[in-house]
């Protein structure tokens, strides 16, 4: 190639990468990055939908501190997360162990267990809402057959959150089980054989071989589940809309309410900042894990 | 003589447990179907039957007359299809670029994108709404499609995949004088079929199942997507439970069929993103 062609190609090559990533970075900046910065900025203002508002410094945060409903939503967020994370992991691991065994119809069970994961949380919420209906729901009817009095699941403040949590188990099991299954299948048989030669029982094999080797998977799933827990919105919105009262209102729900129902966008942004900081912790753990392994 | 493997006691126990789990997981789908086809009186009763006395398939027609479900479907289809095409194009190209090119600011920009991986849209609800309003994109397809086109997950997966494309292939094409875009189109893309499959499936699924963005952006009844429409059906006095279950069931048939056919990619998609780190 001539010197001119070389020069052209070098210049061309310099610009090309930026052009290739331009659409992505543009959308990312305008609709993801700027809104994040904006959230922080808005939290310091008394902002409404129509825009414009006065700078009020940390007044929103002070108001949040005094807001009983905020603390309720914070508590509910933790209630939901703690209620869902350990159990879905344990259930998923148990399911994965079962699915890993060489039994007939293995493929069917693996497929079946994952099928709830592909439906939306709206669908999951509507279906379970119907099943949990206090007068006509099949669950209360089934319980009645055993002489157990059914609850008004979604309208009783005591049972509303547990009902949402139970629905989450149904929805989440396929996800955790599938990931644990991949983890289990990545453990070479030699480890189990060696342990067997040393005279280990099945339980000891599990405790000393399986669990330790599954640690990366467990860490990953824990972090993801916690993040999903904090982010949860669709299911609560569909099943209870935060009710009864504020019994199932989680933070995302309360943010939505403040932003779009009572038009207090500055306040909503301030809560967004708090939620962001909450999610930051598991995110950093997750990214650290990625960085150390790559 | 061929010996058949006998199932051990542990295997039988496993099967029994799995059957119980399968019943728990699959029953809601069965119940959706059954509720949809039952005659009305059998639905609103404190003593429901497990099996309908008759299968009133006409219930589906009735439900579709009461509920503008096909309108929801139209909107969701438009959003999901356009989003799939744009997402695949943008993310595969960007992933390729981040993986195979060296340019100033590359790592910084990638880190920034990764950092927002876990920032849910709920946090940025207020400013995002404000930006969309200012752009005039409320109640438009643009407002539904564009904001989520640069999903960090897609970029991350893309780059991860593109890293494994052999450099020699690209160099050979360059020596032959091919332009960069040509290289992408005729060499990179054909070798990226698994990535594209995963991106297509997951993008379609997320868009179809999305509630929050439509909830924020759409107030016009005619523009409602499937999830938004479904979530608003509760409490409408003319919508009965068999109508509701009928349309809910209809809404999940496409994705379940896709899932059954392309299972492998679903599993690949979530395990690769999970296990690869």
Can you tell me about this structure?
Chain A is an all-alpha fold. Chain A has 13 helices and no strands. In chain A, α3 (68-100) crosses α12 (251-261) and α10 packs antiparallel against α13 (265-293). In chain B, 69% of the residues lie in helices and 0% in strands. At the A-B interface, α1, α3, α4, α5 and α7 of A face α1, α4, α5, α6 and α11 of B.
Summarize the structure.
The complex is a heterodimer of chains A (294) and B (277). Chain A is mainly α.
Give the percentage of residues in beta strands of chain B: under 5%
Average pLDDT number of chain A: 87
Radius of gyration based on Cα positions of chain A: 25 Å
Count of discrete alpha- or pi-helical segments spanning 4 or more residues of chain A = 13
Residues in helices of chain B, as a percent range: 55-70%
- Structural class designation of chain B: mainly alpha
The secondary-structure element order of chain A is HHHHHHHHHHHHH
Q: Give the biggest beta sheet of chain B.
A: none
Key terms:
heterodimer, A: 294 residues, mainly alpha, 13 helices, flat, B: 277 residues, 69% helix
